[in-house]
Structures are given as C-alpha cells and as structure tokens.
Design brief:
The complex is a heterodimer of chains A (142) and B (164). With 142 residues, chain A is α+β, with helices and mostly antiparallel strands. Chain A has three helices and nine strands; from the N terminus they run H-E-H-E-E-E-E-H-E-E-E-E. Chain A has one domain. In chain A, strands 1, 2, 3, 4, 5, 6, 7, 8 and 9 form a nine-stranded antiparallel sheet that branches. In chain A, a hairpin with a 5-residue loop joins strand 8 and strand 9. Chain A is globular. A six-stranded antiparallel sheet of chain B has the order 3-8-4-5-6-7. A two-stranded antiparallel ribbon of chain B has the order 1-2. Chain B is 29% helix and 20% strand. Chain B has a single domain, classed as endopeptidase fold (from Nostoc punctiforme) (Alpha-Beta Complex), CATH 3.90.1720.10. In chain B, helix 1 crosses helix 2. Chain B contains five helices and eight strands. Classes of the chains: A alpha+beta (142), B alpha+beta (164).
Chain lengths: 142, 164
C-alpha cells in the first residue's frame, strides 16, 4: 500500500512538473505601438499582424523576427519589479502594467554551440505580453 | 546530407570573430544603448567599433555612425555576400544611407547590436533584416586604405582622417 501511495505521489509530481506555465502558449498580435516607425516599417508590421507568436516548451516562433526551432532558453525570463521590466523594452513604450512583478527578460535560442543567443526581449503581464521590435516598436500580444 | 565544407579563416578574420563573440558574451542581457560603446550596452556602430578596436588596438576606429563606417574609406565595398569579418550595412528599403551595421560571422549569420535584442547573432534569413541589406565592406588598415581610395582634390584628409 505504501508503495502504491509513493508511486501515485511520484506520478502526480511528474505530471505537475510537465505542465507548462500559462504563458507558454500561442499568442496573437493584438496591437502594435511604434510612434517612431517609418511609414514603411509600420506597414511591414501591420501586414504581419495576423501572424502568431508561439512561446513553446521546446521552440519559439516569431514571424516578425527570428525563430528558435531547435531549442529555446527562457532562463532569463523571471518576475521583476514593473519598473525594472520597463527597462527591458528599452526605447519601447509600455502601458501601465497590471502585475507588480511581471515576467520580463530575454528569449534565447539554445540551438547553437556556445552561450544562448537573444532573439527577443519580452514582458509578460498576466493575459498580455509585450514583445520589443526594432525602432522601439512594441507588439502587444494576447 | 553532404557536409558543408568549413571555410578556413585568416588570422584577421578569426581575431575579429573572437572579439565579436567575446563582446556578445560580455554584453549578454544588456539592452541596446544609444551611443553605447562598452559591454554595458552598445549601439550598432559602437559594437562594431569596440570589436575592431579590441582586435586591432585602441583608436583603430573613431566613434562614428553606421553610415560613416560605410563611407569613411576604412571599409571599402566588397561583393555580396561578403566574408566572415566583413561589415554588413543595412538601410530602409529604397534608401542608401546605412542606419544599421553588423559583422558577418558566416554564410548564414551576422552579429550586431540590435535595438530589439542587444548584442546578438542574426540569421541572414531574418525576415526583418534580410530585405534591408544595403552593402558589405571589408576592413583595410589605414596605409592600405590610403592607397585604394581614389583621391579627389582637397578631399583626401576629410575622407581618411575624419574627426570623431
């Protein structure tokens, strides 16, 4: 009986460990903020607005920039004070954040020799995420 | 799948790429910084200048913009797709003034400091950057640069010895 309970607990623990966090999912682009973009850049971004950004467990898909098809590293993505999180988007503007400690940091590809390579800087604020693009553009994901 | 032969790099190319990778590692996690030229934060030309000054000695390159690097005579244009250690310049579509610069790492990647990522390697197939590639340039030491730049009356000093 004791063995059965232990095995059950172990299975439950494994299942829990394999449940991805809520932000590891497919996001749609709900808005683009880029006051400093050229009209051409704005049009380029708008034309891709229907695309999906995928924070997968083993891969990252970002049709606006670059994918990590063979391995992704989210180690830098962790809860940070909102004021610090704002700094992660550099010149990008963020609206008021709902979470005092949003997840913020770099998404890195881990599919090459050597240290992981940054492909995105993001802030995840509950049901919304913000992805920095060039020219200070910020993509709002939902 | 047949193996792709790895090109043999010259000592100069290896040196540039080693310094570029060292700067990438040292600047990991640091955001793009306007005017930045240290591992605490780079802008695009600041990163390139840092790498070449580490490789060839302090003051090899003065602090200038991406377009100054392209037109200043130290990086004469070479045919696409360049070679490891060459600079790759970017401009908005339909324009000819470089607004971004990186260093060619291989046939598939370049490295630079981008405003969205900080220092990072980027694939040549990157959907944002690929259409913006303007030209490539290869570093020429000052003496060589003097010899290869066409002289125009009164323009030599301003081309070669631009103030920072």
């Amino acid at each position: 009986m004791r063995w059965l309970i232990a095995a059950g607990l172990l299975l439950a623990a494994c299942a829990h460990a394999e449940t991805p966090p809520g932000w590891q999912r497919t996001w749609r682009v709900a808005g683009i903020d880029c006051p400093r973009c050229s009209p051409a850049d704005r049009a380029w971004l708008a034309a891709r607005q229907a695309e999906r950004v995928v924070f997968g467990r083993d891969a990252f898909t970002n049709p606006f920039y670059e994918d990590c098809p063979q391995g992704v590293d989210y180690a830098d993505l962790r809860p940070r004070p909102a004021t610090e999180a704002r700094g992660f988007l550099g010149a990008g503007r963020l609206p008021a954040l709902g979470d005092a400690m949003p997840l913020a940091g770099a998404v890195r590809c881990a599919d090459r020799a050597g240290p992981p390579n940054t492909v995105a800087r993001v802030v995840i604020d509950g049901p919304r995420a913000y992805l920095l693009h060039e020219s200070g553009a910020v993509l709002r994901l939902e | 799948m047949p193996d792709t032969p790895t090109p043999t790099l010259s000592d100069a190319q290896s040196l540039i790429l080693r310094e570029a990778e060292a700067a990438r590692v040292a600047a990991a996690g640091k955001p793009y910084t306007w005017g930045g030229s240290t591992t605490e934060g780079f802008d695009c030309s600041g990163f390139v200048i840092h790498v070449f000054n580490k490789a060839y000695g302090t003051n090899t390159l003065a602090r200038v913009t991406a377009d100054d690097l392209r037109t200043g005579g130290r990086f004469p244009a070479v045919d696409p797709p360049g070679a490891p250690g060459d600079l790759v310049f970017f401009a908005p579509a339909g324009t000819s003034r470089a607004t971004h610069v990186g260093i060619v790492v291989s046939a598939t990647e370049w490295i630079g400091s981008q405003s969205s990522t900080g220092v990072a390697t980027v694939k040549f197939t990157n959907s944002y950057w690929q259409p913006r590639i303007l030209s490539y340039g290869r570093y020429q030491p000052l003496q060589t640069a003097r010899a290869i730049i066409p002289m125009r009356a009164g323009s030599f000093a301003s081309v070669i010895n631009r103030p920072a």
